[in-house]
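Morning. Coffee machine broken again, so started the prediction first thing and wrote up yesterday's gels while waiting. Chain of 386 residues, entered below exactly as on the submission form.
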Amino acid sequence: MLEFSSLIPLAIYIHIPWCVRKCPYCDFNSHETHGPLPERAYGNALLADLEQDLPRVWGRRIESVFIGGGTPSLWSAEALERFLSGLRARLPLRPDTEITLEANPGAVERSQFAEFREAGINRLSIGVQSFDDGQLRQLGRIHSRRDAFAAAEAAHAAGLDNFNLDLMFGLPGQTVQQALTDIANAVALEPAHLSYYQLTIEPNTAFHASPPTLPDDETVDRIQQQGQAMLAQQGYARYEVSAYARENRQCRHNLNYWEFGDYLGIGAGAHGKLTDPAAGQIHRLWKPKHPNAYLAAAGTAAGIGGDAPILEADLPVEFLMNALRLVEGVPVERFSERTGLPLTTLEPALSRAREHGLMAGDSARLQASERGLRFLNDLLPDFMPD
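Came back before lunch.
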């Protein structure tokens, strides 16, 4: 039985699954819109879903809220405000709770940024991906370079200065100079945060069925190394494998994931992780994936798509696959606080990883070395159950 000495921080993720067009690289649970969104019906389903999960989190306060998708900025500000009001009526939120909304740089959504702020949104995550119109067409994006600039300017004008820009590298045919130009364009817009990550070809995507020609490994490595150096020079500190931020502007919601905090998952296909100290277990829960199935089942027994405890033997690697993504790692005591297991559970794999130069030598922290950050896939198997 797992033993927990302190209350685990709690966040909430809300999934809105619709988008204008499915991108060929996207493997998220997203569905193209065909007509008006069922805002009221889906909002009611979200609240019914939340109420069903409430007994699992009585007495706990929400640290952060993330509304993802899909393209949740397709929702009206009125629908978002109605849902956020319902959320606050059911769960206590910190006065300074970070509330993030994913947004597309399309013209319709950016015109609502000021209204989103009035509705309670205080952080945006804008899916730019590239500032090159040719690359945007290859990626299946519905916006242009001009739209991307206009979206960032609209965020500033709306008082939403705490925004993230999503930027990809290793795009089809991309050169080092093209990638660095993308970074220069992003930095010029003065975002608080940048997510800078490599395009990967995922199963069950259009790109997997018909793969584009991507840069070779040597070019991708040069893009990554020079890009990271450029971001550091511009004042964006790398704090996670693919996350860079101005001072004190790290994404608190994602930090909760990486530090193995708890989170409710509300919406079609949403996943959650919740600690039950009384039962000595950590559970993963998920909701029905298809929007129609979710709308029909939310708030009923069928509204829980699945509920399974994480096996004790799997907890070390589950914890480390998140925590070791952080550049500075986590204090060693975080392992026992969040898994309910003694630190000795990590031995002898921890000593072996340090001997191989994949873990930093500081005994007070669980931290990957610079080499370990680059080769996490080589580091983590040592901590998997036999």
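The chain is about 35% helix and 20% strand. Going to sketch it on the whiteboard this afternoon.
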